[in-house]
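Weekly structure sync, notes
Attendees: PL (lead), two postdocs, one rotation student
Agenda item 3: pending single-chain targets
PL asked that the sequence for the first pending target be pasted directly into the notes so everyone works from the same version. It is reproduced below exactly as submitted, 70 residues in total.
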Amino acid sequence: MKSLLLFALFLLNCAIHKETPDVYICDSGKAPRYHYKSNCRGLSNCSYKIVKISLNRAKKEGKTLCAWED
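Predicted structure, written out during the meeting:
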């Protein structure tokens, strides 16, 4: 019974803490967009490093989805 309860708690925890997808941004400090694909056309002009961050972090930084990926 205890193992069933632990398993139920584990499933509940997974449901609450869903992982968010990673996105890509140009790490210039001024780039306003995020991208789902590292080879997105919108990143082609990035002269800085392209980095992968969580979608939540990108949104917290005020970034919006690239128009090429709408």
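Discussion points:
- Residues 2-16 form the longest helix (15 residues).
- DSSP finds two helices and four strands in the chain.
Action: rotation student to compare against the earlier draft before next sync.
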